[in-house]
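QUALITY CONTROL LOG
STEP: pairwise intake check
CHECKER ROLE: data steward
CRITERIA: each record must contain a sequence immediately followed by its structure tokens, with no blank fields

ENTRY 1 OF 2
RESULT FIELD BELOW
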Amino acid sequence: MNSFMSWVGGKKALRDEILKRFPLKYQKYIEVFGGAGWVLFHKEPGRDFEVWNDRNSNLTNLYRCVRDNPNKLKYKLKYVLNSREDFMRLVSLHKKGLFARFHDYDRAAKFYQLIRYSYASGLDSFASQPHSMWNNFPQIDMASRRLQSVIIENQDFETLIRHYGSPVSFFYCDPPYYATESYYKDVGFTKKGHIRLRDALLRSNSKFLVSYNDCPEIWEMWNQPGIQIETVSRLNNIVQRYEGGKMYEEVFISNYDTSERSGNGQLWLWDAENFENTLPV
């Protein structure tokens, strides 16, 4: 199923490729940087213990409201205006950090309105597109049913990984991409966060899969024993209007054999011995 929302850096285009690389055996699935939850909503439910986490408290509140009382949220959204004036008022409240002053469902409705009516879900630029909020209500209902057995967390990633790390846990991480940290002001992710994430995962005694933009800094950062890196391409959705067919290079980083489900042998792997010859140029 699809997510009930869009989000910067969402994995809609890569969700099939990600699921192909899930380990065969695990008991706990933890989505560390939840966002729009494209992978969670796409995976089969009911076979594992599931956790969705995001450090953005507005986003976490929205997820809890969708899960716990979708009808109340839809009531709040029923007559919102798709107008620049209303949108810019919400932008001002959001930038001032004032959403937290509203009750949960009012806060969730305002944040969802900001997501839906902004350009590329950027939260600050009015999209100027006709859109009926009522069209989202069936997807909100589906998301609510899907989330009923999902634990929703609002923890720092290092705390979360320490909390849920175990030999039967599997972490999927889609962190802010390298050199794009400024797009995630609400969660305070910095360049040092990439190192902190790597070290937390390596200490976790768990299986993990991390998606990143393909850049030399990430390859060098993950030059660690037992780590595999695979390159993958997807359509660059942001520039399709101007450069149709343009691709965006990403990497999957893991500490297990990601070809387990395919049965077609090993995927291309990276190791420290050929590091110098494999750095992207």
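ENTRY 2 OF 2
RESULT FIELD BELOW
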Amino acid sequence: MHRFFLNKLIMVLSTFAAVIGLGFLLWILTTLSIKGFESINWAIFTHDLVEKGLLNVIVGQLIMAGIATLIGVPMGMMAGIYLREYSFGSRFSDIIRNLSDVMMSAPSVIIGVFIYGIFVAPFGSFNGWAGALALSIMMIPIIVSTTDSMLSLVPQELREAGIALGASKAQVIKDIVLKSAKIGLITGVLLAFARVVGETAPLLFTSSNNDYFMLNLNDPFPSLTVSIYQLATFPDETSQGLAWAGSVILTLMVLFINLTTRYIFRQRKAK
């Protein structure tokens, strides 16, 4: 009787906590949708920030996130491949895994301050390269963990079969292991991209912002997240409306990436 009562109590409390969490999420999304969609117009996608549009900051955000992906994905995958295929459970591999876990939980503002100290302050100017580098550092531990986990799911028999056929270890990894885990690896890359595309804190210390459309990453570079932060603090309704519009655009971008990730993962499970 006591165990039955305790089980019911825990179930009720868990359900209540879930309802509260979902209620706040629904409240946030409803407010964001109402205020965001009423502020969206075609000019937002065709004009720069100085002209009360968001074209330059949307493009700037995607450029920095794209460069971060080009830097972080290869490095993270190579580290993950080393951990799973070459380390053989060494103490060094355990240290790398622990450091990767610590980096995933590290506040993004700390990464921003670190990059500011070595890539911004010495050059005397904010720049887009520093912003992309900060985002790539945030991506690397996610890619490392995902690669390590996905490769661990590939049966050892496949590796042994490739070696038995005369393939080198590098060929087995490239042609058998990675191809077998490609859906999971793509899922990890999309999740990492969704994680960094909405970051603000590291960009405040690295790329800052720019009101004009530009592709020169040697100067302060436009970013959507920093623009939302700045516009939300302005007293006029036009700027606050742009902040709401930028927020709903960013939310839809992240939602699209996450839905795509879930679809890919579901296709993998179906196979």
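INTAKE CHECK: passed for both entries
DESCRIPTIVE NOTE, ENTRY 2: The chain has a mean pLDDT of 89.
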